[in-house]
Write a structure and sequence with these properties.
The structure is a homodimer of 311-residue chains.
Chain A (H helix, E strand, L loop, with lengths): L17 H6 L2 E7 L4 E9 L2 E10 L8 H19 L9 E7 L5 H9 L6 E5 L1 H9 L5 E6 L3 E6 L5 E5 L11 H16 L7 H10 L3 H9 L3 H5 L2 H7 L4 H21 L7 E4 L1 H6 L5 H4 L9 H11 L1
Parallel strand pairs in A: 1-4, 4-5, 6-9
Antiparallel strand pairs in A: 1-2, 2-3, 6-7, 7-8
EC number (chains A, B): 2.7.1.8
Organism (chains A, B): Inhella inkyongensis
Pfam families (chains A, B): BcrAD_BadFG (PF01869)
Chain lengths: 311, 311
Amino acid sequence: MLCPSSAAIVAPKSEPAAGLAQAVRYWIGVDGGGTHTRLRLWERRAADWVCLGEGQAGPSALGQGVGQAWRQIGEALAAAAVQAGHAVPHWAQCALGLGLSGANDPALAQAFRAADPGCARLALASDALTGVLGAHGGQPGALLIAGTGSVALALHADGRQVAVGGWGWLNGDEGSGAWIGKAVMQHAQRALDHRDPAGPLAQAIWARCGASAEALLAWCAESGQARYASLAPLAFDCAAQDPAAARLLQEAVQQLEAMVAAVDPQASLPLVLSGTVAARLAPQFSAALRARVVVPQGDALDGALRLLQSA
Amino acid sequence: MLCPSSAAIVAPKSEPAAGLAQAVRYWIGVDGGGTHTRLRLWERRAADWVCLGEGQAGPSALGQGVGQAWRQIGEALAAAAVQAGHAVPHWAQCALGLGLSGANDPALAQAFRAADPGCARLALASDALTGVLGAHGGQPGALLIAGTGSVALALHADGRQVAVGGWGWLNGDEGSGAWIGKAVMQHAQRALDHRDPAGPLAQAIWARCGASAEALLAWCAESGQARYASLAPLAFDCAAQDPAAARLLQEAVQQLEAMVAAVDPQASLPLVLSGTVAARLAPQFSAALRARVVVPQGDALDGALRLLQSA
């Protein structure tokens, strides 16, 4: 968020050890999930952290393999170097702060560290934690992410980090795009069975995915998290005309509010909303929740740099 | 069901053409799903249909490939011949009635027929249809299957066949063992998040699958329909002590009753309950539904023979 639109500066919370600071020329933040890797490349110039460029690559979620994760991070670094007009930095010149999906699994985190190609410094956390660090500039706060998946996090004043949700699209991720997509598909199937009314929402799903059992089953057989999430906008489109769509979005709101309540039972922390589904549902959240919503100070890449600075 | 406990006879609804009856020595019923294939081997002796033996093999659900389906059916036939003390029949001597999962998909059914190894006669339907044919001896009636998956069927007096549910364990199969298993796993995850109370049901799931986020996620990553269904008995075990378990089973009952209502809106047909989950939930069904429950006349293999006779 702070780069490249501003020649951005993130104030370090603590200074690195003098020797290390000499060796490290590049400070890198990484945000890695199941679909994309984003990377931001900073250089320290006197008291300032100057953003040189950004790069993107494919998935670096640790559950898809640590070898792939390091490869994609390398590609994102190369892309950022191209944007910066630099040669690709050697790993030994780089300090990396990484927020990677799956890093909360200790076995995956250990395997990722074991495959370190020789970085000057490594700080690893889940992409959710770097998200909340970025959103509140490292200060206490809560973050609700509802995009393709969903998770809520809080960084409390006493240092506790609490995460709720994020159990994945098959069983969890309530209120997310994939969750809404699965629910509207169920509705379309039940409407075909005459168990649910065949209103505008069911008609819209049939028009998109097929109006027979065979067609819907074939669509489902070929679909994963992202494709289910692509159905979620139909629920928003139909909510004004179809009570089934409106009820479903209301249920999503309740599920997401329950996640926020579980990470911050005192309802005392400032809250950042992130993700397209959270943005579209925001007007339906309770007044009490909306009153705590603040504008994010930065994104997960800023959070990854903070993680590195405080490591 | 009629074999091998009784030297069983299923009265044919119609006689085969005289020429075909000469060529056909063996009459075979097949019930094929995603886990197993069951096959029953009959011989016509004068006016009687004598069951020679039964055989089992691996999955012959058409969605897993028609080549595999024919191989497993062949293996089940060989196993039945061994039980009968016969040589394995040549396909040309055999008339096959098949109730196979996936046969309601026209493309899969066509591919299966195209790979026919040379049977004297072939009659193909979904395993659900052979189930209802067997349950009511070919007469009008309804069938509710709730085991690992769930589906409801009705054969109406005017010949209409209506199926509801059976959309698969990822999005549908409401009230089934896998559906209950997924719901109890969600509850265990939410209890770990402090979104649900951690009562006896959550404790039981944690004891079985792990009491940390990492352990539960690992369990889910390795699990499919059958393994989720293996959690369903915990809901029954805990229902007396844990309101969450009792509510979940009540919701399963409502879902299954809605399926029965959708196949038989007049509530006029006799109903057979099939599957372990239906059996355990039976006492909780409404009195109106229970009043229509009858003892099955036969199983899906008997139904497959009826399908063949009426083809």
